[in-house]
Amino acid sequence: MTSSTAPLSPRTAARGSRRSRGARIRSLVTALALVAAPGAVVLGTAGDAAAATKISHATATSMFRDAGVTWSSSGNCSNRNTSTCTSFEQLNLATAQGAQTLKRASGCALNITGGTETGHASGTYSHWNGYKLDFGKSTCLNNYVKNSFSYIGVRGDGAQQWRSASGNVYADEGNHWDVTYYNCGGC
After folding, report:
1. Which helix (H) or strand (E) holds 26?
2. What distance in Å separates the CA atoms of residue 148 and residue 164, rounded to the nearest whole number?
3. For residue 119, what is the DSSP state?
4. Given CB 3.0 to 4.6 Å as the disulfide criterion, which of 11, 86, 162, 179 pairs with 149?
């Protein structure tokens, strides 16, 4: 009996090999992300541009504590569903790493006053979706942002904005900095 399937051409076989190599690399990247951030949940695949590694509140606070970053809330709580709390539940790993990078690069005392809790503006790159943190203002942080980053104009709500070399955006919202982390800022 003969097989009705023709043998693979060298070109087709190489393509199949690249696909399995790509799948192995994606699996390795996912595994490394989980080792680097215990308590993290990976959404999507490593090849999906919209995928973000989400971390727990406990993982984020551990990362912030290790970097010397503090946090506070007007309600003295961390419930994601209460607007007076400061929660890091479902924060993007890159956002937490971005705060660590900002602390190291600026040398400033950093206090986070807003995380992933309800009560912020909606949108794809929002607090709720894990892309933003609010930092209390200080002379050190104000000077660092304004002297290190590029001024990019006024946001629709009137907030002045600066963009870091890595593309993260710092908006001056009066009593705090509203920072959108598209990446970890060079971590």
Report:
1. helix 10-36
2. 7
3. T
4. 162
